C-alpha cells in the first residue's frame, strides 16, 4: 500500500521537478503574484541578463503597498510612491505580465486579489515576494513568500529551489462561541506556540472549528501562519472552497472545472499520515483576543489584564516584554477594557474582505464613532469596495463617522500617507504589531474586525460578547 501522505506531502510531490541527494529540490511554481515593493530589482535582473518572463500567463501583478487610499483619479502625489507604481506598470508592460493598476476595480491587496480572481486554486504552488502569501493556503494550495532574488528566479524559470519543510497539524475542535472569530483563533494559536513555534514547518489547520469557517475566515488563519513562524499554512479544500471559486474569472470552466474538482477532492491528508508536530485547541474555550505588546504572540483575553513580565522565568524574554510594555505605554494589571484608543484601522490582507466589513457594519450600524477616535476602513480590493457599496455598507460606515477609503495595504504597514502619529494607540485588524509598524512610535493592538468596530464606538476596548 502507498505511504499515507499529508496534504502538504501530496502537493509537494506533485511539483518536484528535480531532487538532489541533500534534499534540495526544484519545485514547479503554478502561480506567481507580483507587487511593487519586492519586484523592481527582479525585473531589473531579467533585463540585465536579457531574459524574458518564462510564463507570463502564470504571473499577475498588482499595486497595493504604496498606493494612497485617498482619491487617486488625478494621479499619485507622493513622488516615491508614484515612481514605484510607475516602475511596476512599466515592467508589467515590457514583460507581458497582466497588471491591475490603481484605478482598476480588480486592484487591491495582492492576497485579496488572487483568490477573488480565481488565480489562486487548490493544489497549486503559489509564491509572491511577500510573507503573507501564506493566505492562499486557505484554498488547499502550497503558498509562501519568497525573497526578491527568488522572485527573479521564478520569473525567469517558473521554478523555485526549496527544501521540504516538516509537517505540523493544528486541530481546532468544537464550535466558536458567539463574538469569537477566525482572528481570535489564529491569535490564540500564536499565543500558544509563540512566534517561532512553527519554524521549519508547514501547518495544516484541521478540525471542526476550521471546517465551519468561511473561506474568508480560513484566509485570516492561513494569513497569520507566518506570524507563528511557519513557512506556510493550509486548509484542505472542500465544498466551501469550490463554491467560493466557481465562476471566478480565472477559475477553470465547464469540463475543465469538473476535472479540477476531481483532482482537488484527492487533496486530503490520508488517514495515518505523519505529522512532526501536533497541536490541539478547543474553540469553545476561546475569548475575543487583544494583543498588548509588540509581537503577535503577546495575546490576552479582552476580559483580562495587561500581564506582568516579572512572572516570566527567562531573563531575556522578561526584559523584552518589559520593553514592549514601555513602548506600548502600558502597566501590568491594567484592565484591557480600560485601554483608551485614538485610532481604529479596519483593513489589510488579514481582515479586509467583504465578510469582515459586514461584521463591522453589524456592530456600528446606527452608532457613532467615539469623539476621540479617528477610524478608517480600507477595503482589501476594488471588488470588495464595490460589493460593500452595493450592500450599502459604506453608508452605514460613513453615517457612523468612519473614513471610507480606496483599497490597498494602507495603515497595515504605513508605506503610504496612512499612519499613526508618535504615541497614538490603534485597534487594528491587521497582522503585525511590531514597533513602528503603523507609524513611528505608533502603538498597535491586533484584534478582530468586530472588536475593532466596537472599540471605535466605545473609544476603548470592549468585550464584543456583551456589547450592543
Ligand atoms: C513589503 C513586503 C515585503 C512585506 C512582507 O513581506 O510581508 C509586507 O507586505 C508586510 O506585511 O510586512
Ligand atoms: S496588507 Fe499588510 S500584511 Fe498584507 S501584504 Fe499589505 S502590508 Fe503586508
UniProtKB/TrEMBL annotation:
<keyword id="KW-0408">Iron</keyword>
<dbReference type="InterPro" id="IPR004430">
    <property type="entry name" value="3-IsopropMal_deHydase_lsu"/>
</dbReference>
<dbReference type="GO" id="GO:0009098">
    <property type="term" value="P:L-leucine biosynthetic process"/>
</dbReference>
<comment type="similarity">
    <text>Belongs to the aconitase/IPM isomerase family. LeuC type 1 subfamily.</text>
</comment>
<dbReference type="InterPro" id="IPR050067">
    <property type="entry name" value="IPM_dehydratase_rel_enz"/>
</dbReference>
<keyword id="KW-0004">4Fe-4S</keyword>
<dbReference type="Pfam" id="PF00330">
    <property type="entry name" value="Aconitase"/>
</dbReference>
<comment type="pathway">
    <text>Amino-acid biosynthesis; L-leucine biosynthesis; L-leucine from 3-methyl-2-oxobutanoate: step 2/4.</text>
</comment>
<comment type="function">
    <text>Catalyzes the isomerization between 2-isopropylmalate and 3-isopropylmalate, via the formation of 2-isopropylmaleate.</text>
</comment>
<dbReference type="InterPro" id="IPR033941">
    <property type="entry name" value="IPMI_cat"/>
</dbReference>
<comment type="subunit">
    <text>Heterodimer of LeuC and LeuD.</text>
</comment>
<keyword id="KW-0100">Branched-chain amino acid biosynthesis</keyword>
<feature type="binding site">
    <location>
        <position position="349"/>
    </location>
    <ligand>
        <name>[4Fe-4S] cluster</name>
    </ligand>
</feature>
<dbReference type="InterPro" id="IPR015931">
    <property type="entry name" value="Acnase/IPM_dHydase_lsu_aba_1/3"/>
</dbReference>
<feature type="binding site">
    <location>
        <position position="409"/>
    </location>
    <ligand>
        <name>[4Fe-4S] cluster</name>
    </ligand>
</feature>
<keyword id="KW-0456">Lyase</keyword>
<keyword id="KW-0432">Leucine biosynthesis</keyword>
<dbReference type="GO" id="GO:0003861">
    <property type="term" value="F:3-isopropylmalate dehydratase activity"/>
</dbReference>
<dbReference type="InterPro" id="IPR018136">
    <property type="entry name" value="Aconitase_4Fe-4S_BS"/>
</dbReference>
<dbReference type="GO" id="GO:0046872">
    <property type="term" value="F:metal ion binding"/>
</dbReference>
<feature type="domain" description="Aconitase/3-isopropylmalate dehydratase large subunit alpha/beta/alpha">
    <location>
        <begin position="9"/>
        <end position="459"/>
    </location>
</feature>
<keyword id="KW-0411">Iron-sulfur</keyword>
<protein>
    <recommendedName>
        <fullName>3-isopropylmalate dehydratase large subunit</fullName>
        <ecNumber>4.2.1.33</ecNumber>
    </recommendedName>
</protein>
<dbReference type="InterPro" id="IPR036008">
    <property type="entry name" value="Aconitase_4Fe-4S_dom"/>
</dbReference>
<keyword id="KW-0479">Metal-binding</keyword>
<dbReference type="InterPro" id="IPR001030">
    <property type="entry name" value="Acoase/IPM_deHydtase_lsu_aba"/>
</dbReference>
<dbReference type="GO" id="GO:0051539">
    <property type="term" value="F:4 iron, 4 sulfur cluster binding"/>
</dbReference>
<feature type="binding site">
    <location>
        <position position="412"/>
    </location>
    <ligand>
        <name>[4Fe-4S] cluster</name>
    </ligand>
</feature>
<keyword id="KW-0028">Amino-acid biosynthesis</keyword>
Amino acid at each position: 500500500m502507498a505511504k499515507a501522505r499529508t496534504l502538504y506531502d501530496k502537493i509537494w510531490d506533485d511539483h518536484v521537478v528535480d531532487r538532489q541527494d541533500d534534499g534540495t529540490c526544484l519545485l514547479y511554481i503554478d502561480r506567481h503574484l507580483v507587487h511593487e515593493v519586492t519586484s523592481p530589482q527582479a525585473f531589473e535582473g531579467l533585463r540585465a541578463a536579457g531574459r524574458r518572463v518564462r510564463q507570463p500567463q502564470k504571473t499577475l501583478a498588482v499595486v497595493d503597498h504604496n498606493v494612497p487610499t485617498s482619491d487617486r483619479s488625478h494621479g499619485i502625489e507622493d513622488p516615491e510612491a508614484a515612481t514605484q507604481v510607475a516602475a511596476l506598470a512599466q515592467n508589467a508592460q515590457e514583460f507581458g505580465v497582466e497588471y491591475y493598476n490603481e484605478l482598476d476595480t480588480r486592484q487591491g491587496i495582492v492576497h485579496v486579489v488572487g483568490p477573488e480572481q480565481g488565480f489562486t486554486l487548490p493544489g497549486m504552488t503559489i509564491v509572491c515576494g511577500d510573507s503573507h502569501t501564506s493566505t492562499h493556503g486557505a484554498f488547499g494550495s502550497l503558498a509562501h513568500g519568497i525573497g526578491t532574488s527568488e522572485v527573479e528566479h521564478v520569473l525567469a524559470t517558473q521554478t523555485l529551489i526549496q527544501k521540504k519543510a516538516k509537517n505540523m497539524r493544528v486541530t481546532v475542535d468544537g464550535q466558536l462561541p458567539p463574538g469569537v472569530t477566525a482572528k481570535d483563533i489564529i491569535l490564540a494559536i500564536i499565543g500558544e506556540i509563540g512566534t517561532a513555534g512553527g519554524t521549519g514547518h508547514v501547518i495544516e489547520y484541521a478540525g471542526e472549528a476550521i471546517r465551519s469557517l468561511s473561506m474568508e475566515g480560513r484566509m485570516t488563519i492561513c494569513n497569520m501562519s507566518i506570524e507563528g513562524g511557519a513557512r506556510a499554512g493550509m486548509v484542505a479544500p472542500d465544498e466551501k472552497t469550490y463554491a467560493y471559486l466557481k465562476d471566478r474569472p480565472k477559475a477553470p470552466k465547464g469540463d475543465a472545472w469538473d476535472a479540477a474538482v476531481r483532482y482537488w477532492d484527492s487533496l486530503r491528508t490520508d488517514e495515518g499520515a505523519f505529522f512532526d508536530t501536533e497541536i490541539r485547541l478547543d474553540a469553545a474555550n476561546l475569548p475575543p483576543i487583544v494583543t498588548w505588546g509588540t509581537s503577535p504572540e503577546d495575546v490576552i483575553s479582552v476580559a483580562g489584564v495587561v500581564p506582568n513580565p516579572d512572572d516570566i522565568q527567562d531573563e531575556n524574554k522578561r526584559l523584552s516584554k518589559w520593553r514592549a510594555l514601555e513602548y506600548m505605554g502600558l502597566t501590568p494589571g491594567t484592565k484591557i477594557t480600560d485601554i483608551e484608543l485614538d485610532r481604529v484601522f479596519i483593513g489589510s490582507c488579514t481582515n479586509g474582505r467583504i465578510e469582515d466589513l459586514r461584521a463591522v457594519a453589524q456592530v456600528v450600524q446606527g452608532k457613532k464613532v467615539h469623539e476621540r477616535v479617528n477610524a478608517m476602513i480600507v477595503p482589501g480590493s476594488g471588488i470588495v469596495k464595490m460589493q460593500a457599496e452595493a450592500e450599502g455598507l459604506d453608508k452605514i460606515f460613513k453615517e457612523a463617522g468612519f473614513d471610507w477609503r480606496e483599497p490597498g495595504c494602507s495603515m497595515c504597514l504605513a508605506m503610504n500617507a496612512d499612519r499613526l502619529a508618535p504615541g497614538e494607540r490603534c485597534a487594528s485588524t491587521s497582522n503585525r504589531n511590531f514597533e513602528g509598524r503603523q507609524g513611528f512610535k505608533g502603538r498597535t493592538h491586533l484584534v478582530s474586525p468586530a472588536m475593532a468596530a466596537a472599540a471605535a464606538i466605545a473609544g476603548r476596548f470592549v468585550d464584543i460578547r456583551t456589547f450592543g
